[in-house]
Amino acid sequence: MHLELSDQELSWQTEWRNFATEVLAPASEEMDRTARLPDHLLASLRDRRILQPFLPVELGGQGLELFHLTLLVEELGRQSPVVAWLAAQQVVIGIRTNLACFNVPDHRDLARQAANLEAICSLAATEPEAGCDLGALTTTSRRRDDGQYEVSGGKAYVNWAGRARWLVTLTKAEGEGGQGSTMLLIRLPSPQVKIGEVHATLGMNGLEAAPVVFERQVVPASHVAGVAGFGHDLYDRMVNELRICVAAIATGLGQQVFDDAAHHAKSRKQFGRPIGSFQSLQWRFSDAALKVDAARLHVWQAVELAGAKGSCFQQAAMAKIFATEAAFWVADFGMQAMGSKAYVRPSRVERLFRDARFLKIALGTSEILRNKIAERL
Questions:
Q1: Which superfamily, per CATH, for 233-376?
Q2: d(CA 264, CA 274)
Q3: Which of 25, 27, 103, 276 is a Cys-bridge partner for 265, taking CB atoms 3.0 to 4.6 Å apart?
Q4: What sign results for the dihedral spanned by CA atoms 362, 366, 368, 369?
Q5: pTM over 0.85
Q6: What is the dihedral of CA 110, 358, 243, 64, to 10 degrees?
């Protein structure tokens, strides 16, 4: 594992950071205020072709991998964890998982549409009662006599459900062998898919998460990912990559809060000297720097092992737990170090503090992931 970026990677990182500073930063306040993803921001993402490099070379991209995706979402996560999440979702679901295991005839076109944000690809994961407990799925799929599948049930929090062109979901396979779960790709809009009202949230405004109900939704056999009845491993691999991306987003969030707080500590004076000169703050700034750097190393290790093994739950879970908890710690410290300046709105640190709280919950809480890690020790 290389711990230094190549010249090309540094160039991409600079490009993505500039985009985040110039475009995302001014749009983030609007998104937080309206709880909507602005159309002009989507247009900017398309115009800058931010996700195009993640397509394979034969589809017009540069074949960038998961490691490069973590660099991208870390930079976007500095200004907008919401947009960083969208980028991760589009690449992991719409490009990587799609090209690896989707069976839809036009899956190459779908990859291009995902890269251009012409087709939003969302994950319908959380069960209304069971959460992310895959052993307690109530959403079912049944193979009909005509070879198609019928999906019934619902999911509680689906990001951009009202915008999505495709939903990916894991279902309990009725009458199938294997592990008894089937991963399906559902095209929207559909009269058999009912989308509820967008939830109001503490942070991450712009995710536009809403409940979804499948009312005997008919899905063609070609929209089964992989093989019916054996969906768990494919789903697990996809979610592991998303967890690694969430860890990278949290790292970017923590880095930005650290930078903002450090700038404040150098310029803000109390008792005739900068507050950053007081040892009580210096030690906490050192702890914050340690946490952010360690989070980044966790992300890179998870990427390395996922590439070597194809999928690596334990390292992905560790990266997600450590980075999200570190981000929340740093965000809390940043609020304390900056005082009222960070607490009042509009304040980037105040917004990132609220966003950081969500990251500890999404795609498996810290507690659930710790349980799963312990089972593998």
A1: Butyryl-CoA Dehydrogenase, subunit A, domain 3 (1.20.140.10)
A2: 9
A3: 276
A4: positive
A5: yes
A6: 50
Q: Please, what is the Cα angle at 322 between 320 and 327, to 5 degrees? A: 95
Q: Which residue has the higher pLDDT, 244 or 180?
A: 244
Question: Domain 7-119: which topology?
Answer: Butyryl-Coa Dehydrogenase, subunit A; domain 1 (1.10.540)
Two structure tokens written together for 247: 């860890």
Q: 310 — phi, psi (to 5°)?
A: 90, -45
CA dihedral 289, 25, 166, 179 (to 10 degrees): 10
CB hemisphere CA count around 105 (13 angstroms): 2
Give the per-residue pLDDT at 113: 97
Yes or no: say if 31 and 205 are a contact pair by the CB < 8 Å rule.
Answer: yes
Higher-confidence residue of 219 and 128: namely: 219
Beta bridge pairs of residue 225: 183
Please, which residues have CB within 8 angstroms of residue 142's CB and are 6 or more apart in sequence?
149, 150, 152, 174, 175
In the block, tokens 């230094």 appear at: 4
Break the chain down into helix, strand, coil percent, rounded to 5.
55, 15, 30
Contact between 214 and 154 under an 8 Å Cβ cutoff? The reply is yes
**CATH superfamily, domain at 122-229:** Butyryl-CoA Dehydrogenase, subunit A, domain 2 (2.40.110.10)
